[in-house]
Specification:
Oligomer: single chain
Strand order of the largest sheet: 1-2-4-5-6-7-8-9
Largest sheet: 8 strands, mixed, barrel
Shape: elongated
Number of strands: 16
Distance between the termini: 94 Å
Bound molecules: ligand C2E, calcium ion
Structural class: alpha/beta
Radius of gyration: 27 Å
Strand content: 15-25%
Length: 412
């Protein structure tokens, strides 16, 4: 027998369900769109459709006010189909008017796993609206992967076979394992915003994120960072090789007409300052990098160091007639500079360290310099003091925002 308390809470749920059922019948749910931007270049790439309840009094209800109740019944499936319908209507209107469109991600609750013919229903509804399948991304949350893996693998395969893209949502928030992501053959991995929390000053937080992006990139999944709120997070995500950024830093979820304007502008990320993209995009001509490498080969610099300033790392190449016994051949860039400085004449040490510290080099790069070059007195591993010229030449990686440096060292 139900206790009084249970009875009343049961009644509350029932009332909510009835109210939500009515809201669905009256088509009170509308779509807000949250843009997703390319992490490096900042172009609009896609968007996520998020349900909002436009109540009869005109106020807007947020998902936490209705999704949990709907998930207890089949109402959630009906909501998802209504949202898909709205998204298709929006896309069709723009396509017919010859206006820019981008793919839209639609959330599908795990309750759809119980629908035997989910893929064919998806096709039927999208075809009816005359929307190309590649414009719809199907988002399923990570938690659905855990319980019913066989079913989800089959569902994802059938959805993809019809040309839709599939995104695994909220990755890292729950219990799914990396191997589950390997088995579910999705296109897109959305990394949960809980993993981004904080200022990323903690080594462990960074290591976890770097590893997730590394493994996703190696599996050739498109990665989306959710909940990006600060420029520090953006900078870090770029170095992780994250593909797309979704978050308040650039845009909150917005009504259709506002999103339509963004689509039409094909705007660069609203929060991205002109100067930032100019920095990031000051790509060196390919010929310049080739020329540098030719100099390495023909002039035979005894010591050449390849570094990645963004990742604070280096790799050293020496010729047979040159040894650097006291310095490891690969490691952390700033430690290399400390080591280099310590091998210099005492009067030159500070100048060397100040010139080549990664922050100084980044500043020089951003100021538009192609090369930073100084001559110092160095005591080599062989105990002999020489004048050495150290030239750090910047090479912009063509397909990431990593700033690379080729260091050429020679005696003068
Ligand atoms: P979600 O799918 O993870 O959607 C992302 C949520 O993160 C959205 O919340 C979005 O507004 C919020 N968000 C985006 N950027 C930021 C940020 O920078 N900082 C913070 N703090 N939050 C950010 P929203 O719109 O309240 O939706 C909540 C959840 O409700 C969604 O989480 C999704 O699970 C569910 N949902 C929304 N619409 C639908 C739908 O049509 N169908 C289904 N099944 N679920 C939906
Ligand atoms: Ca989602
Ligand atoms: Ca999510």
């Amino acid at each position: 027998m139900l206790s009084r308390e249970n009875e009343s809470s049961r009644k509350e749920i029932t009332d909510s369900e009835i109210q939500l059922q009515k809201a669905l019948e009256n088509h009170e749910f509308i779509v807000y769109y949250q843009p997703q931007y390319k992490a490096i270049r900042g172009h609009l790439a896609s968007a996520e459709a998020l349900a909002r309840w436009k109540k009869p009094d005109g106020s807007i209800g947020m998902p936490y006010e209705f999704i949990p109740y709907m998930e207890k019944s089949s109402l959630i499936c009906e909501l998802d189909w209504q949202i898909l319908h709205e998204v298709c209507r929006f896309l069709k209107k723009r396509i017919d008017a010859n206006e820019e469109v981008v793919p839209i991600a639609v959330n599908f609750s795990r309750n759809h796993l119980d629908e035997d013919d989910f893929a064919s229903m998806l096709c039927a509804r999208t075809d009816e609206a005359q929307i190309p399948h590649e414009l719809i991304h199907v988002e399923i949350t990570e938690s659905s992967l855990v319980n019913d893996s066989e079913r989800i693998i089959a569902l994802v395969a059938s959805v993809r076979a019809h040309g839709f893209h599939v995104a695994i949502d909220d990755f890292g928030s729950g219990l799914s394992s990396l191997s589950m992501v390997k088995d579910v053959d999705a296109d897109i991995l959305k990394i949960d915003r809980s993993l981004l929390s904080g200022d990323l000053n903690n080594d462990k937080d960074r290591i976890v994120l770097e590893s997730i992006y590394d493994f996703a990139n190696r599996l050739r999944l498109t990665t989306v960072a959710e909940g990006v709120e600060t420029r520090e997070q953006l900078g870090f995500l770029r170095t992780c090789g994250c593909d797309l950024i979704q978050g308040y830093l650039f845009a909150k979820p917005m009504p259709e007409d506002e999103f339509a304007r963004i689509c039409s502008r094909q705007a660069t990320a609203s929060g991205m300052h002109e100067n930032d993209s100019a920095d990031i995009l000051s790509v060196q001509p390919r010929s310049r990098a080739m020329q540098l490498l030719a100099e390495v080969i023909f002039k035979k610099y005894p010591l050449v160091i390849f570094s990645n300033l963004t990742r604070n790392s280096y790799y050293m190449m020496t010729y047979d007639n040159f040894t650097t016994t006291s310095c490891p051949p690969a490691g952390v860039f700033d430690e290399l500079i400390e080591h280099g400085a310590s091998s210099m004449h005492p009067e030159d040490q500070q100048r060397f360290a100040d010139t080549f510290h990664s922050s100084s080099l980044l500043a020089a790069y951003k100021a538009g310099k192609e090369c930073v070059c100084i001559v110092t007195r160095q005591l080599g591993d062989d105990g002999i003091s020489r004048m050495v010229e150290t030239a750090d030449c910047f090479v912009k990686s063509p397909d990431s925002d990593d700033i690379l440096v080729i260091t050429l060292c020679q005696n003068v």
